[in-house]
Design brief:
This protein is of the alpha/beta class. It contains 24 helices and 18 strands.
Length: about 650
């Protein structure tokens, strides 16, 4: 039996030892996808090739295409899509086997087709469940939850006194405004429910293979919306203040309850796609408050175990987003040139091309054109982003469906040229990359990397280091806990992952930790509580002080505390104040840090930590990379010293702890 086969078999035995044989034929599983423009989907098929440039998303692209490069047509997944026109008004239905062209404003010509999250959601649901599936998609652009999708139990829209006073000063007809709002309230909720009910009576017309004797099962609901509520300063005037979006969370909880009631599915699994436009937020307080409110229903006691969030910010492409943001300057220059009557069309074109060349390199412009097809509020119209979101929706939905009896799943993929086992363990997802060559002494040393966002990190920059470790018999692992900043919740998830890979896969009981940037908060806070499990810590410009980055305000959200509460408990959670257990265990530490780093300054992070660690008697080394900042450079990611550090300390402790 091969190493891969034995590991998969071990995982399956550990995870499914109480499984029951499935029936020969299963009911058709029906999933509802609803929301506004980002559920519609504005990613053009022309952006598919961009997925191939990232080793994380290249395997997803392989699932999206046939061998000849044409878009995949799912044999066991059908879709009915009630869609809108360019103005968001209902304009028809398209149905058939799932493929491309079920994005915004269908049907489109082959070279202009779009996808939303439905494409990879269906692909991965088919793969994960191996059952016939019907998607019922209802999405219309520019729709709010506070009005358009307002559900029955939310009651009528209540205007605030400030709104009414403002309308009165503007001389508007208040009764007419009230009547217009009443007519609009809940319209798209009713259209959504009506379409679902209609489809459920016409399944045999959509799915030719449907067997009425076996029947169907309403299996899950995915909600992906939010932009119009975020931007509605009239309804949410205090959105940048604590509690400013609490009304959205209340409306969403009522929406979930009403959908379940109206479709007679009292525990229908719900996945909430928490809005993540522009990625992880450090500056926009309003966006942060909104995301918290959108995610809040999943934490309500009545929804425990059957409502879950997907933080779509994790799949944002920072590089592509920055390139698209520059384009606003090009548009501004184009507008100015068009007003200049002293120039003829050829001169305007030449001037604009010259300006583009000042803003972009040829490679940057090519990357932007290949990867983005829309504005940032439509997730850049990027297939790379939306494909990952759809996949995450599917994986989270399957986790909900399989609770509480099913344990985490294992799936075999490829990363960094080696076999990779993708695992889901409770709230955490992780991976184990198998060595290309086993260790000669039979030990199983491993390096555990953080932060491990499922789509973004570890990225291509780790290829040099990881490939060399894999050849030396090391396993490489990661666990996605989101932007936890080392919170107690994330530490618990890390411990469950550790217990699994050591207990089931036989990895060494002592692990080499590799924190990059904010991963320092994650690994040090776990390590100080588990010093006997740590072989060494080798970091790349790691964050070591919560007050330095991301700051107590952002950290408090992840910790479920107020900023004042976290300040009072800082010594319990701040790595630079918690080093004694590691020093007592004499855990070797090595940091690589640039002396011009302005994001995670050397002095207040690695400088302070290593100084304190040495004073406590801990073995620590600091390698200062002169003239370098917080960047993915060879000096950090192709460091022979860091490689030798892991090889020295990982194998010794692996042999001792195997």
């Amino acid at each position: 039996m091969s190493l891969v086969t034995s590991l998969v078999a071990a995982t399956l035995v550990a995870f499914h030892s109480t499984g029951v044989a499935a029936p020969a034929k299963k009911p058709l599983k029906v999933f509802i996808l609803a929301g506004q423009s980002n559920m519609e989907g504005h990613a053009k098929v022309s952006t598919f090739d961009h997925l191939a440039k990232d080793p994380v998303t290249a395997p997803i692209l392989a699932e999206m295409r046939n061998a000849d490069g044409t878009p995949r047509v799912c044999e066991k997944v059908w879709i009915s899509y009630s869609h809108g026109n360019a103005h968001g008004e209902p304009s028809g239905e398209v149905r058939g086997r799932l493929t491309t062209n079920y994005g915004a404003n269908p049907p489109r010509n082959a070279d202009d087709q779009k996808i939303g999250p439905e494409f990879t959601f269906g692909i991965y649901m088919q793969e994960l469940l191996d059952e016939p599936i019907l998607l019922v998609k209802t999405a219309w652009g520019g729709k709010s939850l506070n009005t358009d999708f307002r559900s029955p139990s939310a009651g009528p829209y209540e205007f605030s006194r400030a709104q009414l006073d403002r309308y009165a000063k503007q001389g508007k007809d208040l009764e007419a405004i009230r009547a217009e709002k009443a007519a609009a309230s809940g319209r798209y909720y009713r259209l959504m429910i009506g379409h679902v009910r209609k489809v459920l009576t016409e399944i045999d017309e959509i799915c030719p293979d449907y067997d009425p004797a076996v029947g169907h099962e309403l299996a899950g609901f995915v909600w992906f919306q939010g932009w119009n509520d975020l931007c509605d300063h009239d309804t949410y005037p205090d959105g940048d203040k604590p509690g400013g979006f609490d009304e959205y969370g209340r409306l969403l909880a009522q929406f979930i309850g009403d959908v379940r009631k109206d479709l007679a599915a009292p525990r229908l699994p719900f996945v909430i796609g928490v809005m993540g436009v522009d990625g992880v937020q450090q500056d926009s307080v309003r966006q942060t408050r909104f995301r918290q409110a959108m995610a809040a229903p999943a934490n309500r006691p009545e929804f425990k175990g059957n409502v879950a969030n997907v933080l779509t910010e994790k799949y944002w492409d920072d590089q592509l987003g920055e390139l698209v943001s520059r384009w606003a300057k090009v548009e501004g220059r184009a507008a100015a040139l068009n007003k200049d009557r002293s120039l003829d069309p050829a001169q305007r074109t030449a001037a604009l091309e010259e300006y583009k060349a000042e803003l972009y390199t040829a490679e940057e412009l090519q990357l932007k054109e290949a990867g983005a097809s829309d504005r940032s509020y439509h997730y850049l119209g990027s297939a790379k982003i939306l494909a990952q979101i759809g996949k995450a929706f599917a994986e989270t939905m399957v986790e909900l469906i399989q609770r509480p009896t099913a344990a985490p799943r294992v799936r075999e993929t490829t990363r960094y040229g080696s076999k990779c086992l993708e695992l889901e363990i409770g709230e955490g997802r992780g991976f184990v990359i198998l060595p290309t060559e086993p260790a000669a002494d039979g030990s199983k040393p491993w390096v555990w990397y953080a932060p491990s966002y499922w789509s973004r990190y570890p990225g291509e920059r780790m290829t040099w280091l990881f490939s060399r470790l894999l050849k030396q018999g090391y396993h490489v692992c990661g666990t996605d806990v989101g932007d936890s900043f080392g919170s107690p919740r994330s530490r618990a998830i890390y411990s469950r992952f550790y217990d699994h890979v050591v207990g089931t896969h036989g990895l060494s009981s002592m692990v080499c930790l590799l924190p990059q940037s904010r991963g320092g908060l994650m690994w040090y806070n776990w390590a100080v509580e588990n010093p006997e499990k740590v072989a060494c810590i080798g970091g790349i410009y790691p964050v070591c002080d919560l007050t330095s980055y991301p700051g107590l305000r952002a950290t408090a959200v992840a910790y479920g505390l107020t900023e004042a509460e976290l300040t009072g408990r800082l010594a319990l959670h701040n790595p630079v104040d918690r080093l004694m257990p590691l020093a007592n265990a004499r855990v070797p530490v090595l940091h690589l840090h640039g002396d011009t780093d302005t994001v995670v300054p050397l002095e207040t992070n690695s400088g302070v930590l290593l100084e304190r660690y040495r004073l406590l008697g801990g073995p620590g080394q600091l390698v200062v990379i002169e003239g370098k900042g917080h960047a993915e450079l060879p000096e950090f990611f192709e460091s022979e010293k860091l490689l030798e550090f892991f090889l020295e300390h990982g194998k010794v402790t692996a042999s001792r702890g195997k």
